Amino acid sequence: MKLDLSGLQSFPSIPGSAVDDLGEDLFAAPSFQLPACSDFDGFQKDAIQMVKPAKGTTTLAFIFKEGVIVAADSRASMGGYISSQSVKKIIEINPYMLGTMAGGAADCQFWHRNLGIKCRLHELANKRRISVTGASKLLANILYSYRGMGLSVGTMIAGWDEKGPGLYYVDSEGGRLKGTRFSVGSGSPYAYGVLDSGYRFDMTVEEAAELARRAIYHATFRDGASGGVASVYHVGPDGWNKLSGDDVGELHYKYYPVAPTPVEQEMTDAPAA
Amino acid sequence: MARYDRAITVFSPDGHLFQVEYALEAVRKGNAAVGVRGTDTVVLGVEKKSTPAPRLPIVSLDTHIALACAGLKADARVLINRARIECQSHRLTVEDPVTVEYITRYIAGLQQKYTQSGGVRPFGLSTLIVGFDPYTGVPALYQTDPSGTFSAWKANATGRNSNSMREFLEKNYKETSGQETVKLAIRTLLEVVESGGKNIEIAVVTKEHGLRQLDEAEIDAIVAEIEAEKAAAEAAKKAPSKDT
User: Which PANTHER family does the record match to this protein (chain B) (predicted)?
Assistant: First the structure.
C-alpha cells in the first residue's frame, strides 16, 4: 500500500526536461512502502509513542492592537534531566516572521530554516513578501506529508503582512489553525490561565509584553519541563524585535518579593571558650 | 530509427530557433486579438472569423483573470487547462489567488520548456492575459509568445493584422477608464475586421464584476456609437471649409 502524495506535488514536468531539478529536490514529498499489517493504526500509534518526545516547553503568542506578542521559556529536558536552560525557542524565520519551537528541537529548527528558504525564494520570484497565511500553509503541507513518520513539531507562525498581524498554529499531525491566542507545550494550561484572564485587545506593547512574561513565568513555576529564561518578542508593521529575556527565578522574586520577617530573638555567637 | 532524444528545436548557424519563428508564423495566421488596459478596466477583444475554423472564445483562468489567444486552438486548450490547474494549485498551497504576473510567468515558462526539450514542438500561440491584482486592485495586461518571453503592456495586439492594430494603438492610445477602454478596444479591432457585432467578441474585466462577456447587441450599440462619432468628426472637418 503506497501513500498517494500526488495531490501535494505540482504538476508533473514533461519527460526529458531538466529545468525543474532544483525545484524537485526542495519541494518533492517523499513516498515509501508501508508495512502490510492487520492493525495499521495501532502500529502507527505504537511507533509514534516510541519516538515522540513530550513537548516539554511553554510557548505562547497572541494578537492585539499593536501586533503580535510571542513569548517562550528556554528549558530543554530529556525525561527528568534538564539538558539546557538556554535554548532559543523563538526562531527568526525572516525579519517580519517568527516561529516558536515545541516538540523535537531538531525538527523545529530544521523545518523553520527550510520555511525561511522557501519564503525568501517566494519573495525573489514574486517581488513581494509571502503572507503569513502562505508561509504557514507551506509548512503545514510539508508536515502533513511527513505525517505518521515521527516528526514532533508544535509551532506557531507569527508575522505581519499586507493583511495586518497574522498568527497560525501548525503541528506535526498536519493541523493548521488560524487564531488570536495560542499556547503550546506542557506548560500551556498554566500559561492559558494567566493569558486568558488578563487579555484585552487594546493593550499597549508594554502591557502586552508584561502579560506574556507573567504567563510564561507562571507556567515555569508549575511545570517542571519549563524554565530558564522567559523571552518576549513583539512583531509590528516593521518586523519583529526582542523586548526582553528575563530569568524566571529572578522574575519570581520580582513578583513575590520576600518580606523580611520580624525576628523575636536573634541568635548570637557563643562566647569563645 | 526514430530518436526521441533529438530536439526538434535546434539552433541554426546564425543563432535562430527556426521552429519558434515558424510558430510565430502560425500566430500571425491566427485570429486578431487585442488587449487594452485602462485605469479601472481591462478589455480583451478577438475577431470572430466567419470561416468554419473552430474558434476559441475569450476564457477565464480564475475569477479575476481572463485570457485571449491567437494561433493554434488545440495548443491553446492544453495551455489553458494547465494554467487553470496552476491557478487552483496556487490557491491551495498559499491560500491566495494568483497575481496576473505569476500566471503569465507560469504560462510563459511552460511555452519556453517546450522550446528546449526533446521530441516536442513549441506551442503555436501567443496569449494576452488580463486581470486585477487580488490585493492592490491594480489592473494588468501581459502578452506571451511561443518563445516563452512575456512582458507587460498598456495595450497590445496579436494574430492577424496585428501590425496595423498596433500602429493604430500607438497613434490613438491614451489613459482611459470604464466604457472608454471598451470603445478603444473595439475601435482598434474595427481597423482590421468587418464592422458589426457578429464579427467581434469583447470581454471586459473589472475589479467588482470580474469577467463579463459583452453580447452582440451591446457590441452593436457601441459600434454604432463609434460610427456616429467618426461621422461627426468627418462633418466637423468639412464644415469650416464650407463657411469660407
Answer: PROTEASOME SUBUNIT ALPHA/BETA
Cell representation of residue B143: 502578452
Residues A157 and A135 sit within 8 Å (Cβ to Cβ) = yes
Residue B174 is placed in which grid cell? Answer: 491614451
Strand order in the sheet with B200-206: B155-158, B33-37, B41-47, B200-206, B210-213
Instruction: Average the pLDDT over A169-195 and give the result.
Output: 94
How would you classify the pairing of strands A154-161 and A164-171?
antiparallel
Q: How far is CA A157 from CA B30, B122, B229, in A?
A: 50, 43, 59
Query: In this predicted model, what pLDDT tens digit does every residue of B7-61 receive, in sequence order?
Result: 678 888 888 888 999 999 999 999 899 999 999 999 999 988 765 555 567 899 9
Q: Which of A66, A70, A55 is nearest to A213 (CA)?
A: A70
Integer-rounded Cα Rg, in Å, for chain B is: 20
- Check the CA dihedral A251-A252-A253-A254 and report its sign: positive
User: Could you give the residue numbers annotated as active site of A?
Assistant: 57
Q: Residue B95 is nearest to which of A11, A126, A133, comparing CB atoms?
A: A133
The residue type at B167: E
CA distance B180 to B225: 11
Instruction: Give A88-142 pLDDT, tens digit per residue.
Output: 999 898 899 999 988 888 888 899 999 999 999 999 998 888 999 999 999 999 9
CB atoms within 10 A of CB A60: 28
Separation of alpha carbons B202 and B226, rounded Å: 15
Residues of A in contact with B135 (CB under 8 A): 162
Of A107-116, A194-203, A231-240, B196-205, the least confident: B196-205
Q: Is residue B203 helix, strand or coil?
A: strand
Q: Between residues 1 and 20 of chain A, which touch chain B (CB distance below 8 Å)? A: 10-11, 13-14, 16-17, 19
Overall pTM > 0.90? no
Cα gap A179→A133, rounded to integer Å: 11
d(CA B20, CA B182): 32
Which grid coordinates belong to A18? 531538466
Task: Please classify residue A80 by burial: count the beta carbons closer than 10 Å to its beta carbon, then call 0-12 exposed, 13-18 middle and 19+ buried.
Answer: exposed
A271: cell is 562566647
Residue A70 CA to residue A59 CA, distance in Å, equals 8
Extract the C-alpha cell encoding A134.
502562505
DSSP structural state of residue B178: T
pLDDT digits (tens, 9 = 90+) for A155-164: 999 999 988 9
Q: Which residue matches cell numbers 516536442?
A: B120
**CB B58 within 8 Å of CB B47:** no
Residue with cell 467578441: B201
Cell match 491551495: residue? B92
